[in-house]
Each structure stands twice: as C-alpha cells, then as structure tokens.
Amino acid sequence: MLACARRSWELVWYGRQEFPVGVPPLGTKVALMCPVCSKLFHGRNKKQHLHYHMMTHTGEKPFHCPHCPHRANRLSNLKIHVKTKHGLLN
User: Fold this and answer.
1) Residue of 80, 49, 75, 79 lying closest to 62 (CA atoms)
2) pTM of the predicted model, to two decimals?
C-alpha cells in the first residue's frame, strides 16, 4: 500500500499479489481505500468519490441553504432540500 501525503487515503494495488512501491504492472487495477471503514473506490472519479465519502465520517457539511440554517454534505442534497422545503427550483 502507498500512503498519500496530500490526502488521508491510501492507494491499494489488488490482484494476486502486492507490488513493490512504484508503478504497478500494466493492466493492474488501482483502487483507493477509505482509511476509516476500508471501503474501496474504483474508476475514473475515485478520488472525488472518496472525498465525498469521507464527509460521512467527518460530518463535514460545506453546502449552506440560502433560506434557512440547513447544511448538506453534497450540493445535490442541498438542491433537493431547497426544492422540497422551500418550493424553489435553483
């Protein structure tokens, strides 16, 4: 496993064996692992998905409702809140 100095997640090489530090062999899939619950994230947007996932562990809610004190961990959740609670389409 490689620890990422910039973020708190780890790169995990998976397959039949672990590989030494460096570039994995061609065709080896790379995933990111949540350091809290060990959930794996794959695919093109794995860093973004892990970032959003980490908000569930930290309780971070960076999106504020402009009409009330409600806060959300994702913009999509805030849009649903505004539409259902305030009847506005933004």
Assistant:
1) 75
2) 0.56
